[in-house]
Design brief:
Layout lengths: L14 E9 L4 E9 L12 H15 L4 E8 L3 E3 L13 H15 L9 E5 L2 E3 L1 H7 L3 E5 L5 E2 L13 H9 L1 H13 L7 H7 L4 E3 L4 H14 L14 H16 L5 H11 L5 H16 L2 H14 L20 E4 L3 H14 L3 E4 L3 H20 L5 H10 E4 L10 E4 L5 H12 L7 E4 L6 H5 L8 E5 L9 E6 L5 H13 L3 E6 L6 H18 L3 H6 L10 H8 L1 H14 L8 H8 L6 E3 L5 E3 L2 H5 L9 H22 L5 H12 L9 H7 L1 H5 L15
Parallel strand pairs: 2-3, 3-5, 4-6, 5-7, 6-8, 7-9, 10-11, 10-13, 11-12, 13-14, 14-15, 16-17
Antiparallel strand pairs: 1-2, 15-16, 18-19
Helix pairs in contact: 1-2, 2-10, 4-5, 5-9, 8-9, 9-10, 12-13, 13-14, 18-21, 18-24, 20-21
């Protein structure tokens, strides 16, 4: 290993220490290796060059022991290991350095699978990336029932499992299960395996109680060694291997359309693992890893990861937390679907009484029934105990009388998106609630300042914009109106944090961030259709971005009527840039909810009503022309938003698009893509981010 592999001089070194354990039932001596970056208990255990060298030295020590019957590996409390130290990898511009680093990881980890005695991974806590691969190199694996997660998230970051996972996992559990872990889960917003998932897929051999996990793991290992415990593993069907990978590739093409290379390189590695030797498989991983680290997707992914891990946890512009008022009761105005979702979330996260109101008993009861059904579903899935479900159900009540809000600390309205209606609601609430009660609005596009006009205490009104579905989407746009005071804003941020949302401070500007940009995006695509572009051409024009859904799938999700309403709002604010499509209005008037209809066999086709409704021009665009048009429009809008102070920096726009619109990490959100595509230079007067921030260095 050359000195060039020391990619991070500030690496928090992972130490590997060996101790001898006498196993029960006369099973012999185990050499137990514990990995722990014990100089910094706040950081998960990672492996840089020094950490790998420490593990290698520990394995030298183990190999010299002639009286051991087994080797075990475990981690520090709550953490097994989370893989390679990525903090400086994105700064490396020498492919040979990465290649050598990958080879070092392989050379060290593979020793666990090539010892003269069986090896056991005791996965006591979170295991991700190289941490999961460390466990895969062992002969057997136990996992704590309390372990937070297990995953191979590399594809999510524009990489591949580079220390054995792409060869070891399919040869352990078959290609279908392996691709679920290596490709499918990362592309579902980095979905993590719980212990039961890892057991179901065969990634681990047994899940044990956390109370005495290490002791029981050693006891289980002793049983394996003396034959009282048999570890059964399903035989892998190698005849169907290629077909499984082909099917996965078809699904991948439909999902990302070739937008990023990492999942395709992972597929290639899994395909080759059918026949490749261990050494050949590991060599292929080294080459793929080195190629991908040199690509722009990895830089963008690390930039996005940094936003989510750091900026999201320290919201820019949030007032001092000491100003926040306690919230011991929450009110929700409305009992429709959005309001009911909010009531469920507030009760579940804040653990305080939540009361919903609506115009009549039937509406209130429908909202309560929704909450009860969601709680019952959580119990049925094993995510909530019956006792907790009963307590949660008791917290949520309903009424037709807003007087129930008299002792509330925080009231949020979730009524129809109409300024006059919302203003009336807030005015009526002022006659009921205490002067220090926060009044929040879940508006998606209307002016919070306008809603607060005429109130006796406009300073306690704040925008609190959730995304649908409320329980799933992590973003919360917190809009400060002109008179919102620091105490109200601090309380809003404190509540948002307790709700486990990513909170971003936004100016009270039309549609805030996500809806403003998505509306501009949809408007450009719909305008191309209005001008004469075929619907299918317009719908697939953005495929090269690998977005979560196509424009018209997004339109169907939002609802054409809602999209039309937002377009009208944005047109009123910015008539020069936001048009109101007559074709969209015709679709809404005709009750068309989606331009595409899905048949029973899963195939899709154009709704037969659509061609009759559309009135198009004779100037069609190509897919490339539409993509450029969209990028230029978004770059123009981002520049305007930054100039207006809608958010503090471009990083906040990227955080909003990642967490509120599901834009992939490999784009880095939005502005890194606009910089790389040249759109920011063409129409926005220059790059949004410093060169090298989220693209190839230099």
């Amino acid at each position: 290993m050359s000195d060039t592999t020391t990619v991070n001089p500030d690496e928090v070194v992972t130490h590997a220490r060996v101790r001898r354990l006498t196993m029960p039932d006369d099973a012999g001596i185990m050499a137990l290796i514990t990995v722990d970056n014990d100089r910094d208990h706040t950081r998960p255990t990672t492996f840089g060059p020094s950490g790998l060298a420490s593990l290698d030295a520990a394995l030298d020590e183990v190999s010299a022991m002639t009286d051991i019957a087994a080797v075990g590996v475990t981690g520090k409390p709550f953490i097994f290991a989370v893989g390679a130290d990525l903090s400086a990898i994105g700064l490396v511009d020498d492919r040979d350095v990465i290649l050598e680093f990958g080879q070092m990881g392989h050379n060290v980890f593979r020793r666990l699978g090539e010892l003269d005695v069986p090896s056991f991974a005791f996965v006591n806590g979170a295991a991700m990336g190289g941490g999961t691969e460390l466990a895969l190199h062992c002969t057997y694996r136990t996992m704590s029932a309390a372990a937070a997660a297990m995953s191979l998230p590399e594809v999510f970051l524009g990489l591949i499992p580079g220390w054995g996972g792409a060869w070891l996992l399919p040869n352990l559990i078959g290609p279908a299960n392996a691709l679920e872990v290596i490709v499918a889960n990362p592309l579902q917003q980095n979905k993590q395996m719980k212990p039961k998932d890892a057991l179901r897929l065969g990634v681990v051999d047994v899940v044990l109680d956390s109370a005495d996990f290490l002791e029981e793991s050693v006891r289980w290992a002793a049983g394996v060694l003396n034959g009282s415990i048999e570890v059964a593993r399903a035989e892998i069907d190698r005849d169907s291997w290629d077909g499984v990978v082909d099917f996965a590739q078809a699904l991948l093409d439909d999902r990302v359309h070739g937008a990023t290379p990492a999942p395709y390189r992972a597929l290639d590695l899994v395909r080759a693992a059918k026949t490749a030797t261990r050494s050949d498989g590991f060599d292929a991983e080294d080459q793929a890893l080195a190629d991908l680290v040199m690509g722009e997707d990895l830089r963008a992914s690390l930039y996005a990861f940094d936003l989510v891990q750091k900026r999201a946890k320290r919201p820019f512009g949030a007032p001092d937390t000491s100003l926040a008022r306690p919230v011991s009761k929450v009110g929700v105005v409305g009992a429709g679907l959005m309001a009911s979702q909010l009531a469920m979330l507030f009760a579940k996260r804040l653990q305080v009484p939540v009361v919903m109101t609506d115009l009549d008993d039937a509406r209130v009861q429908k909202g309560l029934d929704y909450v009860r059904a969601q709680i019952d579903a959580e119990v049925a899935k094993g995510r909530m105990s019956a006792d907790r479900a009963n307590r949660l159900s008791a917290l949520v009540t309903g009424s037709t009388d807003t007087a129930v809000f008299s002792d509330a600390d925080f009231v949020i309205e979730a009524v129809f998106e109409d300024l006059d209606v919302k203003r009336t609601v807030l005015t009526s609430l002022e006659n009921v609630v205490r002067p220090d009660c926060v009044l929040a609005t879940n508006t998606s596009s209307l002016s919070v300042t306008a809603m607060a006009e005429g109130l006796a205490h406009p300073e306690r009104v704040v925008g609190f914009h959730f995304f649908n579905p409320v329980a799933v989407m992590p973003l919360l746009e917190i809009a400060r109106a002109e008179q919102t005071d620091d105490a109200t804003l601090a309380t809003a941020f404190a509540v948002g944090k307790t709700l486990k949302k990513t909170c971003v401070l936004v100016k009270d500007a039309p549609a805030f961030v996500v809806n403003r940009l998505l509306t501009r995006y949809l408007n450009e695509v719909i305008a191309a259709v209005d001008e004469g572009t075929d619907l299918a051409v317009a719908d697939r024009a953005s495929n090269p971005l690998g977005l979560p859904m196509s424009p018209f799938a997004l339109l169907a999700l939002v609802g054409p009527a809602v999209a039309l309403h937002v377009s009208e709002t944005m047109h009123a604010a910015f008539p020069d840039r936001y048009a109101v499509s007559d074709n969209l209005r015709r679709l809404v008037d005709a009750g068309v909810s989606s331009v595409w209809v899905t048949a029973d066999d899963g195939s899709t086709s154009l709704d037969p009503r659509v061609p009759e409704l559309l009135q198009q021009g004779d100037s069609p665009s190509t897919e490339d022309e539409i993509l450029t048009r969209v990028a230029d429009a978004l770059a123009d809008e981002v520049r305007r938003m930054l100039d207006e102070g809608v958010v503090a920096e471009a990083q906040d726009i990227d955080l909003c698009m990642i967490m509120g619109a599901g834009w992939p990490f490999w784009l880095g959100g939005l502005t890194p893509y606009l910089d790389r595509s040249g759109a920011s230079e063409r129409v926005a007067g220059g790059r949004f981010l410093p060169r090298g921030t989220a693209s190839v260095p230099g």
